[in-house]
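Attaching the record inline, Q. Sequence:
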Amino acid sequence: MKAISMSRIWLRARQSAVSLWCDHNAIAATEFAVIVPLMLVMFFGTIEYSSGVAVDRKSSLVARTLSDLTSQSWYQNGAPVQNLTDSVMTNVFTATMAILQPYAATPAQERVSEIYVDSTKTAWIQWSRAATFAAGATQATLTTSSRSPGDNVTTLVPAALLVKQTYLILSEVSYLYQPTIGYVMAPSGVTLADSAYTRPRQFACLSYTSISSLPNFAGVTQPACPTP
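Structure, as predicted:
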């Protein structure tokens, strides 16, 4: 009887061990719980960062386009015009909305300035204009720039561009990129920014009717925008 009892106990223990070895449900559940969060981070992180890189690239293209279009001036009756107007700059800023698609233009802040480099290689703001984009709007809204005529921006300009008695068109773009999901990146978003410099194409410089372009820089009256 004792031998039989030990045999049955051993047999039951063996069956339990085999059943436990064959039951992988608990292992699968544990693996799933460990791997899924990592997979979600990788999946959403790829989406959010890929979109961020795309927006950053578009911001760079917008900066280059702004300075390029502005430096080309505009044409009237087949001839280039040296004087910029609010209407012309509204069209220039509005053109960048197409570049930002399919992303909204609302988070974008854009600014175009003309810089004068004097005989001492000191750079001054000649004029500056900014624009914003309202939700659902089909064109840009001109606003007052945070840069004013007469601001010293010498440290902002690359040394190679500080050529005496020359002019530069500076465009600056910032874009608040907010991820759709916000699973990996901060939901508050990341500000992406870029700038570009271009020399006026048709003229030595460009004037702006609605903005004073003859400020008194450091006590010295600067020359008027020269005509060809």
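The helical segments are 2-22, 25-71, 86-100. The radius of gyration is 32 Å.

More tomorrow.
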